[in-house]
């Protein structure tokens, strides 16, 4: 690819099980950088998810509707194939700490090898959320810890309902 496309579409992939304020911060900042940002949920995740893809889609849509250029979808198979199908030329990922770097580097280099026209762009996580992950949120909440301020209120309410059923 030689020239910058007129509209830069970025794809922000992940499990989002559930979305945290760290993800949301990245979405908000990404929405200012790109013409369109697609938040893409991985469907065929090996991890046993707490929320179905449909529930995660709903949760994401509830919080991103305030950003007119942000869309939510889901994908199976190779990320670069999905990005190509969506005409995305950028993959957006967040880095919280140096421990994220190795995994992210591996994925970025593999994705570049698979599809050299797609560029991975990393943004540093907001320091206020750099210690949180969906995994930790579920663990702490499940053990009765306070997660207020770390996930959107609508997500906290869903966690409350989900854990009261278990
Ligand atoms: O934030 P997560 O949950 O670690 O996201 C991981 C994700 C979805 C970005 C990654 O697992 C992925 O891209 N899966 C799709 C399969 C793929 O394309 N693999 C080759 C590139 S490493």
Model description:
The protein is of the alpha/beta class and 166 residues long. Helices cover 43% and strands 19% of the residues. It has helices at residues 21-33, 53-64, 79-85, 98-114, 134-142, 153-165; strands at residues 9-14, 36-42, 70-75, 90-95, 119-124. Strands 3-2-1-4-5 form a five-stranded parallel beta sheet, with helices on both faces. Helix 2 links the parallel strand 2 (36-42) and strand 3. The longest helix is centred in the middle third of the chain and has 17 residues, at 98-114. The chain is globular. The mean pLDDT is 96. The site of 4'-phosphopantetheine (PNS) has 9 residues, from strand 1 and helix 4.
SSE topology:
Layout (H helix, E strand, L loop, with lengths): L8 E6 L6 H13 L2 E7 L10 H12 L5 E6 L3 H7 L4 E6 L2 H17 L4 E6 L9 H9 L10 H13 L1
Parallel strand pairs: 1-2, 1-4, 2-3, 4-5
The protein binds 4'-phosphopantetheine.
The site of 4'-phosphopantetheine has 9 residues, from strand 1 and helix 4.
